[in-house]
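From the shared-data thread, chain only:
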Amino acid sequence: MTTTAEQLSATTLLRFATAGSVDDGKSTLVGRLLHDSKSVLTDQLEAVEQASLNRGQEAPDLALLTDGLRAEREQGITIDVAYRYFATARRRFILADTPGHVQYTRNMVTGASTAELAVVLVDARNGVVEQTRRHAAVAALLRVPHVVLAVNKMDLVDYAEPVFAAIAEEFTAYAASLGVPEITAIPISALAGDNVVEPSAHMDWYGGPTVLEHLETVPVSHDLTACHARFPVQYVIRPQSAEHPDYRGYAGQIAAGVFRVGEAVAVLPSGRTTTITGIDALGESVDIAWAPQSVTLRLADDIDISRGDLIAPADDSPAVTQDVEATVCHVADQPLSVGQRVLLKHTTRTVKAIVKDIPSRLTLDDLSQHPAPGQLVANDIGRVVVRTAEPLALDSYEDSRRTGSFLLIDPADGTTLSAGMAGAAFAAAEAVAAVDDDAEWDF
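Structure, as tokens:
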């Protein structure tokens, strides 16, 4: 007989994030999703019911299932990113409920950086607003492959199809111009439960999936084995014991792709080439290993390799550079300025660097570029040019979210300043399938 643990281990994992303007109902949607999918423990539900009664509410406020900070409950807003883990029979989920306030845009960057899908909420009464466009742009910058437009509070507009259609058309056109590859629009009422887990009885004009059904069936495109093979070295193992006098292995987690015994590889940034003679995984020798396994590689030649070096196929290695051009999301309260000395952390490698230029700052409401701003402040998104003291083997973020991303760090106190994405800012809009004028929202 198959156990629950065995069933869950056989299901796929989807990481997704929610975003939207203040009071659009993100936390209520997440609470409804957890409640109606039977993913809430009895004591959690009782605590929410009691907290709701204490606030004078007759029905339980499901938003309290995610808004756990006292300041969040007092103000009725989301401040920090709230992570929730739940599962259905078809799939496991890691959910990041991100804040809606403009000053917490950086928190959405954190939540969506590893997401395969983003749910952007819109209040049906207000339509697409500046913060909606901002969140769509952030999702596009972070190369989130699937975006769901959840038009919430349909019960407050009498479940009117024209209202939904107009919002979906406007958002789809904007997101498609950013290069978002897939956009799905769903009309919902998080408070009433319409089209969240169960189909709505009030919108018979809608024939598409509920939010949960879409989350359970959307193709998960994070197959790292199909990507360029990359292995950042975390640790060099040399026991020099009587049992293993000559053992030399390079331990780490495979960031992407597949490695095989006998394969010719390059060690970067030095560029030296050699061959994989062995792969050790969980104390056993194997012939093949793939992302995201943690393994130890043994090589044919004694090359000078240390933490921070990158091992890649000899015929498919990233370019090595000291001049990094990238888009960064500035997350620190202190500004990032031209001429500032920083540390750049890329995979397991951390090097000294200097901000050579900040060519532009992005205005997310209309995607215009503000040239030569001189500095970036909290929540700003802009282009930077960074010169590193040592060469880096850096992929384009478009090619690899794992090895195309980096952090800029304050060398004085270790504060994270900016999250960077190497290469072009947005995917080319022409690379995205054209949206048919007669079907601009997807059921």
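The longest helix spans residues 161-177.
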